[in-house]
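Narrative progress, year one. The postdoctoral researcher (J.K.) led the effort to move from monomer predictions toward full complexes, under supervision of the PI. The following entry was the first complex the group processed end to end, covering 229 residues in total.
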Amino acid sequence: EPEVTQTPSHQVTQMGQEVILRCVPISNHLYFYWYRQILGQKVEFLVSFYNNEISEKSEIFDDQFSVERPDGSNFTLKIRSTKLEDSAMYFCASSDLYGGRGDTQYFGPGTRLTVL
Amino acid sequence: GESVGLHLPTLSVQEGDNSIINCAYSNSASDYFIWYKQESGKGPQFIIDIRSNMDKRQGQRVTVLLNKTVKHLSLQIAATQPGDSAVYFCAENSNNAGNMLTFGGGTRLMVKP
């Protein structure tokens, strides 16, 4: 069964450093998403991406964040200058189209980001 | 250091019993709802979904009920097994352009053998 994959599984970085989190969505999907989950809290939406552009972003997704689909298979989240409060699990998700909109979102296993 | 997390409501059931997990959603414009299961250290795993033109949908051992009048969603698990132990989240899609999902706070299901 196709699944979303993410690398690395755990990333440790120093405050102020740039990190890039990588995702390979399900191959025939057209919508891509990033969510995050701070330890013990709800899953929170960051950004959605369709047709090579951002469809929607939350207030969490400020100028320090960016997304890119550098080729036909990868989808990345970059944090330019990490802060302590960026420590969280970051989940990538992807979905197909249904009625012109994104359909069921399937999540990857996550990348645990620890900012020291 | 670690942040203080939400206090998750916990449902404890005996193996073989049925489980019912409830969720109140917030946006009356939401037209698509999903239940996810999250095991420790893993990503949310799709269980079942329902669109707003339905009030009930059944899967294998799971049933989702939607009551739009009171903005309430429930997940019923039949013959609960130890492998069902996890945190369960409901999520709503409020028909926005970016398909943003808004997740609920989660319920921890513990299955006693």
